[in-house]
Each structure stands twice: as C-alpha cells, then as structure tokens.
C-alpha cells in the first residue's frame, strides 16, 4: 500500500477498532495518548475552520468520545479559548475518567447536563456525545439537547462522527447532530459517506493522528472511495466503429423524453454510434431534436431483433413501461446475451421475473427499485445500503449501482466503491436516464462492467457538481449535465 492510499479506503466500525487496537498492541502507543492526539487534531481543525472562535461549548458523553471532548476543552482553555463543557452523566472507562479529571485539574468546570441548563452563547458547539459505538436512536433527553444546539444557529464540529449517525451504515434512525465539519480519527468510517449521513456530516476531515503507514499495511478495508478519473485520449486514427454502438431500448407511449435523455447521454459519453428502439410516434421528435441519433420504429420483438447484430451494448429500461410492448422488448434484449445496462422499468420487470446474469451487466436501481428486486421495503434498504447493494450484486450476478446520496457500486464478489460527489439539485427527473446512457457508452468503448459503473457514476455526479457550481442546485435539470460531462471526459473540470 502506497502512502495515503488508506485515505481512500473505507472501514467498518469493527475494522477501525482493530486498527486502534493494533496501534496500541503492536505499535506500543497507549490508548490515552491516542485520545490526546485526537483532541489536539480536533483543536487544529477547529482553528482551521473557525479561526475567530473565542467561545466554545463541548458536549461530552460517558465514553471515550466524551474523553476526546474533555481533552479538547482543556487544550482550548490553554490556547485562550473559553470552553464550557457539559457532561451527560458520569464518565465510564479509565481513559474517559482520566480525561475528565485532566480538564477539571486545569481549572475547567464540568456542568452536568439537564433540561433546565441554559445553553451559553458560543461561536462553535462541539459534539463529543457518542462515537462510533452508537447504532441506535438517541435517547429522548439527548435528542432534546441536540434540538436546542441546532436552535442556536451556531456551527457544530463533530468529533469522529455526528452523534445519532450510524458510522457503519449511514443510517440515521432518529434525531442526530447536524454539523458543518466532522473530524474523524485514524481511518474513514464507511457510514459517513452514504445514505442519510451526508446530510449530517458536513465536511469530513480525516486525521490519522500521526500514526505510521505501517498501521494500514495488510489491514482489510470494507470499501473504497471513488477517485476522479476519465478515459485516456483517443488515438488520432480513431473512427466511429472503434468506439462502440449503443442501442437504447425504451420510450413507450408518452415517455419519449426518458429514452432521448439516455441516448443523448450515450452520445455525450463518447459512444461512436447510438441507435434508439422506440415507438413510431417518437421518431420525428428524436430526429429533429438530435439528428445524430439513429431512431427506429420498433413495434415488437422481430423489429428489435433486426437491430441487435449491430449493437455493442444495450441500454434497456428508460420509459420502457411494463406493458406487453415493453415486456416483449425486455425479454428479447435479455435473451440477446449482449453487454447490458438495466434501469427503470427494465428493473421493475426483473423484479417480477427474476433471473441471474453471467455476462457483463450493470443494474442501476434507486432505493425503491432495489426494494422491489430484493422483496423488501425501502426502509430495509436505508438501514444498511452496503448490505443491500452487495446482496443485489450477488443475487443477480451483476454489477449494481445503488443510487442516492453517496451512490454505491458493488460487484458479485462483494467489492464496493462509494461516490463522494453529487448534490441535492440532482434529485430531479431524468438524472437516472442520463446515468444509464453514460454507463452504456463507457461499456461500448471497452470498459468492463465494474469500470463502466464506477467511472460512469463518478462522471455523472461530478458533472452535476460542475453544473450546480455555475448555475446553482435549485432548478438543475438533467440536460444541464451534458456539457460538463463532455468537459470531464476530455480531462477538463472547469
């Protein structure tokens, strides 16, 4: 493992605990020293983000996360920052108790929290209530404290993980602290990057606490963060036949927009040729709006079969419908045994008639489609998105993209990649159709299913961020991503 590679690795809570134990047992670093390093790193983070802060309030739970908070309070006082510390009950564990005493011996006063206590006016609140161990909803009295912290309007710094956020899964089962910055220690926790968590964690800043790279050598990670990538430049002698032929299948009555977005994204994603198999009523609109597309009337399986020999990759589902027409085309496409991207009604039909895949297939469900494919409800998907995407990939023998904040990509062997880009403006109709076309275009250009899914998801999300940067999130529409997508594919990001 090269230097800093571990910063792109994501770990479960148990894996982080194993790293922590390894630092203690194999590197000989006492647990209390690790706590001191965490507090020092937190103070540096606090001053980086709020250099003018002169008053802070630190809320300490009973465990080691609270111990981090007490030591941060002590260091802040030494640095000339007024620190008021509130404790939820007595500290537990030798290190947490020692940290509390150190704060008190330095002249600090610990206020026992109850609902009658008034919150002081401060520049920054610090959440040191619960660390990675809490995987249930906050108790009502703690939730009430969180609500009062939010009501002050002052920014919040979380130590390791915002309290109430499940650091293992990204689920938020009840009230949680919504912070501007999370300073997380030793290794990135996988739950901070997906599901509901991105709405609570703010900017995540990793602090390795000065631990040597040898700590991560041989350590198993659960997932990885995607990195910015694109395709290499094309050879000067390239022609359209070198870059694949995507056949987009869909667009039942009234849904021409979905198949157009998919097919146009395949063009912008670099496919050499893009054909569209759709209803006759859509041909004039497609040909006039985007003449580069080759639109074909397909009234049933026989007409579709005539188009299949020229196709490199099939993109199936946008606007397909679940009626007799869509079902017949879906069966024909799946039986063709061509590389395949399956989305929307292509997935809903699969949920009705399950089958596994052995060839290159990418499935791109949102949580509702994922729930139908697994025969559960969306809450079950949200509770553990990592488990859900892995089960989907294993059950169907495909690479699966579980869309949403912090989209996940899994393969049947259990590998998972996490997208750290994207924004709320992308929660609009048509965004999924674009992704289907982009992934299909990448497969057409020679990417395998895993490469196409991870690169496609990252390009799609980064294009959304570029579009939002120039025009704002609210009002963002799917076609706004097409020009930024082209820039990113050509190695440009502005």
TrEMBL record:
Pfam families: Carb_kinase, YjeF_N. Binds 1 potassium ion per subunit. This is Bifunctional NAD(P)H-hydrate repair enzyme. The gene is nnrE. Homotetramer. The keyword ATP-binding applies. Catalyzes the epimerization of the S- and R-forms of NAD(P)HX, a damaged form of NAD(P)H that is a result of enzymatic or heat-dependent hydration. This is a prerequisite for the S-specific NAD(P)H-hydrate dehydratase to allow the repair of both epimers of NAD(P)HX. InterPro entries: CARKD (IPR000631), Nnr (IPR030677), Ribokinase-like (IPR029056), YjeF_N_dom (IPR004443), YjeF_N_dom_sf (IPR036652). Signal peptide: none annotated. It catalyses: (6R)-NADPHX = (6S)-NADPHX; (6S)-NADHX + ADP = AMP + phosphate + NADH + H(+); (6S)-NADPHX + ADP = AMP + phosphate + NADPH + H(+); (6R)-NADHX = (6S)-NADHX. PROSITE patterns: YJEF_C_3, YJEF_N. Residues 16-217 form the YjeF N-terminal domain. AMP binds at residues 403-407, 432. It comes from Dyella kyungheensis. (6S)-NADPHX binds at residues 64-68, 131-137, 160, 258, 319, 366, 433. NCBIfam families: yjeF_cterm, yjeF_nterm. Keywords: ATP-binding, Isomerase, Lyase, Metal-binding, Multifunctional enzyme, NAD, NADP, Nucleotide-binding, Potassium. Its EC number is 4.2.1.136, 5.1.99.6.
């Amino acid at each position: 493992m090269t230097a800093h590679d571990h910063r792109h690795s994501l770990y479960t809570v148990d894996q982080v605990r194993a790293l922590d134990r390894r630092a203690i047992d194999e590197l000989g670093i006492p647990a209390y020293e690790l706590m001191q390093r965490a507090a020092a790193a937190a103070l540096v983070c606090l001053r980086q983000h709020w250099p003018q802060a002169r008053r802070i309030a630190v809320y300490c739970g009973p465990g080691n996360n609270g111990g981090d908070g007490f030591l941060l309070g002590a260091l802040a006082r030494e640095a000339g920052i007024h620190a008021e510390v509130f404790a939820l009950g007595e500290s537990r564990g030798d290190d947490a108790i020692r940290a509390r005493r150190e704060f008190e011996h330095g002249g600090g006063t610990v206020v026992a929290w109850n609902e009658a206590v008034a919150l002081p006016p401060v520049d920054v609140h610090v959440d040191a209530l619960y660390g990675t161990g809490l995987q249930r909803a906050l108790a009502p009295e703690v939730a009430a404290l969180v609500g009062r912290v939010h009501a002050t309007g002052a920014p919040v710094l979380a130590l390791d993980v915002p309290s109430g956020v499940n650091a293992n899964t990204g689920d938020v089962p009840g009230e949680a602290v919504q912070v501007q910055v999370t300073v997380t220690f030793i290794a990135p926790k996988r739950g901070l990057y997906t599901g509901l968590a991105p709405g609570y964690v703010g900017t995540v800043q990793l602090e390795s606490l000065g631990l040597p790279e040898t700590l991560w050598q041989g350590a198993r990670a659960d997932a990885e963060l995607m990195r910015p990538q694109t395709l290499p430049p094309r050879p000067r002698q390239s022609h359209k036949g070198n870059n694949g032929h995507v056949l987009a299948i869909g667009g039942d009555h009234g849904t021409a927009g979905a198949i157009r977005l998919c097919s146009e994204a395949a063009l912008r994603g670099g496919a050499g040729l893009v054909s569209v198999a759709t209803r006759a009523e859509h041909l004039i609109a497609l040909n006039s709006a985007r003449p580069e597309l080759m639109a074909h009337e397909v009234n049933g399986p026989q007409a579709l079969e005539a188009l299949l020999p020229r196709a490199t990759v099939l993109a199936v589902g946008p606007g397909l419908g679940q009626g007799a027409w869509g079902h017949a085309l879906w069966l024909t496409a799946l039986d063709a045994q061509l590389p395949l991207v399956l989305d929307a009604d292509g997935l809903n039909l699969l949920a009705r008639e399950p089958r596994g895949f052995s060839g290159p297939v990418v499935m791109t469900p949102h949580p509702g489609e994922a729930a139908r494919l697994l025969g559960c409800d969306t809450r079950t998907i949200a509770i553990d998105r990592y488990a859900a995407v892995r089960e989907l990939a294993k059950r169907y023998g495909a690479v699966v993209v579980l869309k949403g904040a912090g989209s996940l990509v899994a393969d049947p062997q259990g590998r998972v990649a996490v997208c750290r880009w994207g924004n709320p403006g992308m929660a609009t109709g048509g965004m999924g159709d674009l992704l289907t076309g982009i992934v299909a275009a990448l497969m057409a250009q020679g990417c395998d299913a895993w490469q196409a899914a991870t690169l496609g998801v990252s390009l799609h999300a980064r294009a959304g961020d570029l579009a939002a940067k120039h025009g704002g999130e609210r009002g963002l529409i799917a076609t706004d991503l097409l020009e930024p997508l082209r820039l990113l594919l050509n190695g440009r990001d502005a």
